[in-house]
Amino acid sequence: MPIPTTAQIWPKLAAVLVYSLLLASCGAPTQRPDGADAGTWNGRRIGVPPRANPSLRQSIIARATREWDYFNRQTVLLRGSEESIPHVGTWEDDDTSSSERVAAYWRAAGKGGLNGMDCKQPWSAAFLSFVMQNAGVPEAQFRRDSAHWVYLASMIDEADFPGRWFVPRRIADYSPRPGDLVCASRGFTRPATIGGYTSARALEGANLHCDLAVSRSGQTLDVIGGNVRNSVSKTTLELDSQGRLQPVPRRPWFLIMENRL
């Protein structure tokens, strides 16, 4: 059998190399270092990430921290089924200044007629709307509203769009970082989930609560939220050995919105 010449071998090697690259590009989605899927939500491909903007991510965190300072730094600890408040801050209806600050939150959510004296009206979504608005987050990236389900449903619906700042992640395989939103159901109802995934439709009308992650140390995560024990509070949460959220009776976490800035 004649020995192939170099001119005959090189085209075949080139073809093999191209084919190998094509196979690699069609393989499993790239995995993040923390193990979370880098590109899908419930089988649907998540859009390409935006250009990194650490300063804007930090502005969001700083704005939430500023509001926490304004309400005199109330702190909450959640450890399993136990809750404690080591430091009590100013409450929503303690004085005119606090009540009017809550009114500013409501205005950011399009509810100009409410303030901190309307104690039966939950204002945690209005608080996050105010934080995002004042940090410079456009409404196309965070839909300001008085209910958490509205902006969460929008983020899930648009997760396959390119350049989305916030995208959904399962709590079972994603370790939250500062700048992320961590979300739980509120009351006796629970949004439908299958395998840790939920949908925009399943969230419609749901009573929910979300906090903004602001810092992390070891197996604890600090989050800031509004209308937490009548104030803007920083809550310390426990993470497992893999850095994942642990749902507890007072906060049955079911969803994280990753901040990709």
Unreliable spans are 1-38
Shape: globular
H-E order: HEEHEEHHHEEHEEEE
Number of helices: 6
- Proportion in β-strands: 15-25%
The profile of the biggest β sheet is: 8 strands, mixed
Q: How would you describe this structure to a colleague?
A:
- The strands form 2 sheets. An 8-stranded mixed β-sheet has the order 4-3-9-8-7-6-10-5.
- The N and C termini lie far apart (61 Å).
- The chain has helices at 6-25, 54-70, 96-108, 124-135, 148-157, 200-203, and strands at 40-41, 44-45, 74-79, 82-87, 166-169, 181-185, 208-217, 220-228, 231-238, 253-259.
- It contains 6 helices and 10 strands; from the N terminus they run αββαββαααββαββββ.
- With 261 residues, the protein is of the alpha+beta class.
- Helix content is 29%, strand content 23%.
- A hairpin with a 2-residue loop joins strand 1 and strand 2 (44-45).
- The chain has one domain (52-259).
- The radius of gyration is 23 Å and the shape is globular.
